[in-house]
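Changelog-adjacent note: as of this version, every example in the card shows the full chain rather than a window. The one below runs 450 residues end to end.
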Amino acid sequence: MTIDRSKLKTALVAERKLYLQRNPKSLELFNSATNLFGQVPMTWMNKWSGGFPIYLDRAKGNRITSVDGHTYIDFALGDTAAMAGHSPDEVSEAINNRYTKLGGATTMLPTADGQWVAQELAQRFKVPLWSFCLSATDANRWALRLARMVTGKSKVLAFSYGYHGTVDETFVITGENGETKLRPGNVGAPGNISDTTRVAEFNDLASVEKALTNGDVAVIITEPALTNIGIVLPEQGFLEGLRELATKYEALLLIDETHTFSASYGGMTTANNLNPDIVTIGKSIGGGIASGAYGITKDLADKARNHTGADLVDVGGVGGTLSGNALSVTAMRATLEKVLTKENFSHMINLATKFTKEVQQILDEKNLDWSISQLGARAEYRFAKPAPKNGTESALASDDELDEYMHLYTINRDILMTPFHNMALMCPDTKENDIDRHTQIFRDAITAII
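Full-length structure tokens:
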């Protein structure tokens, strides 16, 4: 069965009208934001469907309440940043104690929490030495610098339509003849992307080896499953093959677990028994407080420390005044120690499995050519069947009109999905009846347009 496009157009007009009716205070605030570039604190907030975003009043657990008085079941969870839930009590208490009682959020001095967090990350992600920053973008940017330095090679290998934050070297796609091309829309690129990066297709080891045979790749950077272009799961043997090829061609392997941390207590590094040289992570480990980290092997650390001329303690391009600040590290410890635990991951993954199963049942009942993929505690449905196997296929499967309709239909019925795609993430506060509510609304949304 296919979507009836005439019904879709009619339904989309109705949903746009309903969104306007439901959110007058949000619209008023948006229209008054004349000193904000794009009328929002960060331009990507305009990705929300409806022409303007709803405005936040308060949030707790997996519930968000807007200034218009609507309370939403939140499956977006800050696009992973709030995977621990909004303002978990354990993190709130730790942050309050650090900031209010002890004081000293930013002093340029270490605290004992730093070693605890580093040891915990080492245990979860299998690399022993860690350094802290404020985002995964920071972590990736600095890790790439270290990789180029210790290998003496100039280029990065990234995957088409992969995403690693605002890191210039990774905004790449595959050209018609396999060449490295800049991803459309990248703002103010500093130079020719082919000077810094070689490109490959996810799940295509032949394309990886072709890029590596040039001998100038310092590091392969990848999520172990693509997420920002929609969930693209690795095929059997692909990640193991990456490790083998990296070793064969003397390149490092960087695994970005920022989104794929949802896979397990130790992300896909643990779940898939990966052996990276570098692991980067951000967002979720701070319970909503800006946090990021990168971990490296002892061998890589020794080479970095012994590198002649490397200024790792001042102007070497690695670090920032706020990095590893006491408040951020306190938040990371509380989140990892008390919220994103093995027990809570089990609960979250079980709920995502229920979500996936119930969506798949509806797709089967309606005989609809969509698919749904699960990555631990997160799941995402796509307007394609079978599910795309690489970033290029995933980009081609986009459907802006259908995407807007599904987002507006759910948000108009008090369910918040990630604005960039149709992704649902579970947190420790998510309940079974939240899944049931989504299932009902998902069924109704599809029924209205077929």
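Structural remarks: The CA atoms of residues 46 and 53 lie 7 Å apart.
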